[in-house]
Write a structure and sequence with these properties.
two-stranded antiparallel sheet; 24 helices; single chain; two-stranded antiparallel ribbon; 4 strands; mainly alpha
């Protein structure tokens, strides 16, 4: 009975959108034109927005490209299929994606610009220990002239190309293997996957002049996004161009109450997120998962003050704002506890996979694959065993490259990273994404092994070690399935996007870097955060130098707290099953311990409104299908407003640079 309750919970969200019976190829000449348009038109805007405001242009690039091509197709007396719309979306997301807290967009050459700054910002002569295969030295002509067209860049660019090839092979192949395990094998719901799939379906219907409920809801969401985007994005961006201090009606990204509540909630980060998208996300995510996250966030408000009062939270100091308070609580307690609960997720998942596989084997339904489900070759399925072989081949390439670049680092760690830890943490994360739609990872594994290995030198921090997390990639394949697109279309899109992103990244980063130094006053976000991030990173890097120390890391890692987190996760899962309670509560609770609570509070407000008002107002069956489409439309509306604001800012910046 308890097991049936979990199956029903997952099936409710998996049935929000069913995969079609037939699959089509979404790759064609329209896709090629769309990729060129995104690379040569959208990428420079994404780079600029990241440097200036620290925001991604992803939704703007994705939905604007789709709408533009949809309208062109209509006026050319043709239509875009749902599969073509999704492949355009897929390419746009890849070409304008942003990585890390530095808000670096625009492809792999962004990392080279950051590396050269990081080497120059090194304290105490540590920059001399950075090898030239990372970036040329600060006195190089290539750095002084801010150009990539110089022979000093050959080692760094060669390593860049090799790692790009290895990483793309690894994430595509192992991401597909995880998809087959989680979606075809375990039938996990992937609650966020219908957002993109429903949006693509709505725009495809509009292209063929089918005014269905999807298009109407998408339009409503778009208008909400435009209205909110004008207040949240456009006003600060436009006034920032015309005035010395931009005008912000709503503080971005949250209203911080931490300083005001520290008198009675010391050590607890309090505040409210101001982005309306969090409320709409509460409509989409499983209710009991959001409720569990809310319980986790409330738990930190109770436990953190107790930790402070008992002297077990030494990192926290009065006057800290939200981010530093959250960091302090993670270091002193929740990081170790989260690692333990992450292991609990892994053990639960492996146990469930084993049980389901044995059940399927008894019923003769394994399809000849170990938990991969039955393949559908009309869907463009690949052989999962060949994918696993390619993944391990790419990992071997990583191992060999690392051995060449850092020959003195103990190779056993590199082997464990690539062949054991990366598959393990990817599996754990794939389960979390499949169940809750949220990405998690095991923190500080890389830092721990570097520091405790006894290795001395900063080069290991820059080495392309095979330590990655490919769990979130499994959701991409679920989106592809829901849109009725063949997986071979995605492979073709990847082969097309790779040369485009390399060429465009080289062109536009060369141009923008040559215009002005990065960071500088022309790029406010970079000027504010690059120095701060460099100081943080060099604090870690210095731990592997002679005389370095790892006091902060040693304070954060508490083995008994990890064991407690493991026991808590397993026991709570067993208890919820025993009483036939929603097991998604435990997954949500774990999520609520590791992210900023300000966003959880607004998500929970949206979940409550959706469950207890919207569902009654519009009917349960309708409300199950509507939120993903509404959310996709909202993202599109926000993207359109962002695009117009960025265009105005770019034109203003260009005019201000003219010498006449």
């Amino acid at each position: 009975m308890a097991r049936m309750r979990e199956i029903e919970e997952l099936q409710e969200y998996r049935d929000l959108m069913e995969a079609p019976e037939e699959y089509q190829d979404g790759f064609g000449w329209k896709t090629v034109l769309g990729a060129l348009f995104i690379g040569f038109v959208m990428m420079p805007g994404a780079i600029y927005l990241g440097l200036v405001a620290g925001q991604t242009m992803g939704p703007a690039a994705e939905w604007t490209t789709i709408i533009l091509f949809t309208e062109v197709a209509r006026r050319s007396l043709t239509t875009l299929t749902r599969q073509e719309v999704y492949i355009l979306y897929y390419i746009a997301a890849g070409l304008t994606s942003m990585t890390g807290g530095l808000a670096l967009a625009g492809g792999p050459f962004a990392g080279l610009v950051w590396n050269q700054f990081l080497r120059q910002a090194a304290p105490g002569g540590l920059g001399d220990q950075v090898p030239n295969w990372v970036t040329p030295p600060p006195d190089s002509v290539a750095i002084r002239n801010r150009t990539f067209v110089h022979r000093d860049w050959i080692p760094a660019v060669s390593v860049l190309f090799a790692t790009q090839i290895f990483s793309r092979i690894a994430w595509f192949t192992f991401g597909y293997v995880l998809y087959r395990l989680m979606s075809d094998g375990e039938k996990l719901p992937y609650p966020m996957a219908p957002i993109t799939a429903q949006g693509a379906t709505a725009l495809a219907e509009a292209s063929s002049k089918e005014e269905t409920w999807r298009w109407r809801l998408f339009s409503i969401g778009s208008m909400i996004g435009i209205a909110f985007g004008f207040i949240y994005v456009a006003i600060p961006t436009l006034t920032g161009v015309m005035l010395v201090q931009p005008v912000a009606i709503l503080p971005i990204p949250w209203i911080d109450f931490t300083a005001g509540t520290e008198a009675f909630l010391p050590g607890a980060a309090t505040g409210v997120g101001t982005n309306l998208s969090a409320v709409l996300l509460g409509f989409v995510l499983p209710f009991w998962m959001v409720a569990g996250s809310f319980a986790g966030a409330v738990g930190t408000l109770i436990v953190n003050p107790i930790m402070v009062k008992t002297g077990n939270m030494p990192t926290w100091r009065p006057g800290m704002e939200s981010t530093r308070t959250l960091f302090a609580s993670q270091v002193d307690l929740w990081l170790s506890f989260s690692v333990g609960t992450a292991f609990a997720i892994a053990f639960i998942g492996m146990y469930k996979s084993y049980i389901q596989y044995m059940d399927a084997r008894r019923e003769g339904q394994t399809g000849g694959a170990l938990g991969f489900g039955k393949p559908r070759y009309d869907r463009g399925d690949f052989n999962p065993y060949i994918c696993l072989a390619l993944f391990f081949l790419a990992t071997t390439g990583y191992v060999i490259l690392c051995r060449i670049l850092v020959p003195d680092f103990p190779i056993v760690f590199i082997l464990v990273y690539g062949y054991i830890w990366t598959p393990f943490q990817s599996y754990v994360n794939a389960r979390m994404v499949g169940l809750t739609g949220q990405f998690i990872s095991f923190p500080m594994i890389r830092e721990a092994t570097f520091i405790f290995s006894g290795y001395k030198g900063v080069d290991i921090w820059f080495a392309p070690i095979p330590l990655s997390n490919y769990g979130a990639t499994s959701q991409k394949f679920r989106e592809v399935e829901l849109t009725g697109t063949k997986f071979t279309s995605v492979l073709k899109a990847e082969l097309l996007a790779f040369p485009i992103i390399i060429v465009c990244s080289f062109m536009f980063w060369s141009y923008i870097w040559r215009l002005n130094p990065i960071p500088s006053v022309q790029y406010p976000y970079a000027q504010k955060f690059w120095d701060y991030t460099a100081i943080q990173q060099w604090l870690w890097f210095s731990a592997t130098t002679e005389g370095g120390h790892s006091e902060m890391f040693q304070r954060a890692i508490k083995p008994w707290v990890m064991v407690g987190g493991l026991g808590f996760g397993v026991f709570t899962y067993w208890l919820l099953n025993l009483f036939n309670a929603p097991v998604l509560l435990i997954y949500g609770f774990i999520r609520g311990l590791s992210i900023m609570p300000h966003f959880i509070f607004t998500q929970f407000a949206g979940a409550l409104v959706g469950r207890y008002y919207m569902r009654k107002r519009f009917g349960e069956e309708n409300w199950k299908r509507w939120p993903p489409v509404l959310y996709a439309g909202f993202a599109c509306g926000m993207g359109l407003v962002s695009m117009l604001s960025i265009a105005f800012a770019l034109v203003s910046q260009s005019i201000s640079q003219l010498p006449f």
